Amino acid sequence: MIVLVLDSEAYDFDYLLWESSEDEILARGRVTGIGTRTAILKHRVGAGSVHQVVLDLPDCRTTLRHVLASIVDAKIGAIGSVDEIGAVGHRVVHGCSKYTEPAVITDEVISDIADFADYAPKHNPYNLQGVKAARALLPDVPHVAVFDTSFYVTLPPKAYLYGLPYKYYSQYGVRKYGFHGPSHRYACERACLLAGIPFGEARVISMHLGRGASVTATDHGKCTDTSMGFSPLEGLVMETRCGDVDPEALLHIMAREDLTPRTLGDLLSRRSGLLGLSGMGTFEDIVAAAKGGDERARTTLEVFAHRVRKYLGAYMLELGGVDVVVFTASMAEGYPVIREMVCRDLEFMGLKLDREANEQLVWAEGEISASDSDVRVYCIPHNEELIIARRVHQAIGG
Questions:
Q1: Catalytic residue among 148, 219, 225, 323
Q2: The model's pTM
């Protein structure tokens, strides 16, 4: 069976085409700049070269039409007809406590995704646009939603409850949910495979360090804690998100700046984090400036690494030790300096980095722990779409 996986966001659109019998990725791509006349579609078949084109893409449905056209194109396509697609998988960020497994999309599921937008207003509405566009253009195949939050169904109450009056949990669902589930699952499973340790027998700490960032602890195949919470704001300092902040500090800022809840939300989600701390435009700029001696840029990276290390240490304690540590997503994959800063001076915890191996591994898969390290450390390129494809195949009886 051929499965098409879609991840629709506000301005971006990721896709993957997967064939089940050989567990093979046939094609994948990314669209950026949706809503503009200069959107960029990057499409790649197998291990071939990337085909790039600039397009006028006003909305999600138009974007998907061009994606499907690329997939079946005579020169750059991977299949002969869209009729070969047997199912479509959709990444959906928030499934609340209701969806603990992939769900075949019905009118009820669509209604729930829309309702859960209250919990993930910057994600679920755009995920839903992708679902509606795909069902309109590919109406004769099953569509399956795979929820980020479903990976965290095994969180115990001690990990997901906040220190708030219990009624806010029981009446309004205010609790930790966790995100980046498919990414953490793929990174954990792949690292354990490379380490020769069954995932169901390992203690794993995974770090998804991309534009959004989170750390997750997994014990014998079950997630026990994660840094993101009720929303993707909690936890690490991220590219533009603040991470953990004293609520009293936020009340203080609101009063001083006369902010509304909406403008405060924009400040915390879009104007904070690494870019807010550094005043720079991209993470690449921050790393380059830090290497050039810029003190503010260097401090920004130290703040980021410090927060990651705090969660790493806390989860090591919670797990009673760790067998595998794994880095994934863009900031970890492309910048060895980040991995080195996170793992520095952790020999007392049994974690020792091979500095030469770490420096040489950029945008690639491999082990970066020293031969005498008790903890195996890996960098795994993120591939959440592949996990989604496999789970879709299982959900419809594969």
A1: 148
A2: 0.93
